[in-house]
Design a protein that fits this description.
alpha/beta, binds iron/sulfur cluster, 15 helices, binds 1,3-dihydroxyacetonephosphate, Rossmann fold, 4-stranded parallel beta sheet, 3 domains
């Protein structure tokens, strides 16, 4: 009871602060439920970048991870962009340091660099086109067939896109710690124990897991699919936060979080996304800190491939 009062009180304080700052709260589907419920907009990486570009708010509060807030800042260099916890990173971004990426590009000077949005501003600045999981296929299909492509940093998404587009891309070797650790064995057992249940999966999952999937798509596409599809039960192979929106959209359906390999961990939760809390959301607005600050030259260079993504999506 007391907990509910504290949460309600905090939610009211967040809304008051938001009005005072003329702020907009943008949240990714992997945020905890309370944060999703208080946000002005909840979406996937592409939708959030589009919202950040469109907003006329003075302050953008980004309830997501660092690369997403950085993208919002690149699109709005004169706005205050706040991230509740600056440590909210991403294993994909960490697995692709800018100096090594620059080296990779130099080794393949004739290749076009299409880079997943899950990377640092420095890596974006070294790329030709940015993409998200919902826009990558469409973007790759617009590149002339004779132009070789480097796809970074997610090897799993890259392998999936090679299959979907028929393009033989060179892949950077990084992966998502959440999507790579779902247990294929436990998922197959769940499919056997729940006849009629469909496996829906994010393309950041491994190719061996994707082989079992009835439907593959970005977070927004998975959400759309469960409303359009006629099944009643789904095994959801992406970060568990999305299930909050799935239950809201289809309260009569059953959603089973895909289990991770390890028995005693909540590895189907993104540890970076979950660093943000309602308290930190309030405090970042109260203190106008932590703020995203970027080198202006890097930001200007990174804006070019981000704008290409927005045009080509
Ligand atoms: P999307 O929201 O684009 O599906 O990406 C998922 C993700 O891993 C975000 O970090
Ligand atoms: Fe990065 Fe994976 Fe977390 Fe998304 S779910 S932010 S890709 S670590």
């Amino acid at each position: 009871m007391i907990d509910i009062e504290i949460t309600t009180d905090l939610a009211e304080k967040i809304l008051l602060k938001k009005r005072e700052l003329n702020a907009v709260i943008l949240a990714h589907y992997y945020q905890e439920s309370e944060i999703q419920d208080i946000a002005d907009f909840v979406g996937d990486s592409l939708e959030l970048a589009k919202k950040a570009k469109e907003t006329d708010a003075d302050v953008i509060v980004f309830a997501g991870v660092h690369f997403m807030a950085e993208t919002a800042k690149i699109l709005n260099p004169n706005k205050l962009v706040l991230l509740p916890d600056l440590e909210a990173g991403c294993s994909l971004a960490e697995g692709c340091p800018a100096d090594k990426f620059e080296e990779f590009r130099k080794q393949h000077p004739d290749h076009l660099a299409i880079t997943y949005i899950n990377c640092t501003a420095e890596v974006k600045a070294l790329s030709d086109i940015i993409c998200t999981s919902s826009s990558a296929e469409k973007i790759i299909n617009q590149i002339p067939k004779d132009r070789p492509i480097l796809f970074s940093p997610d090897k799993n998404l890259g392998k999936y896109l090679i299959k979907k587009t028929g393009r033989d891309m060179l892949l950077w070797e990084s992966s998502c710690i959440v999507h790579e650790h779902f247990s294929e064995e436990k998922i197959i057992k769940l499919l056997t124990d729940n006849p009629g249940a469909k496996l829906i999966a994010h393309p950041e999952c491994t190719d061996t897991l994707l082989m079992w999937a009835n439907y593959i798509g970005s977070t927004s596409r998975l959400l759309k699919f469960i409303s359009e599809d006629d099944s009643n039960s789904y095994i959801v192979a992406t970060e568990v936060g999305i299930i909050h929106q799935m239950k809201k959209a289809e309260p009569g359906k059953n959603f089973i979080p895909a289990p991770p390999e390890e028995e005693s961990c909540s590895c189907n939760e993104c540890p970076y996304m979950k660093l943000n809390t309602m308290e930190k959301l309030y405090l970042c607005m109260e203190n106008k800190f932590p703020e995203i600050i970027l080198d202006s030259i890097i930001a200007q260079k990174a804006l070019i491939p981000i704008n290409r993504m927005l045009e080509m999506s």
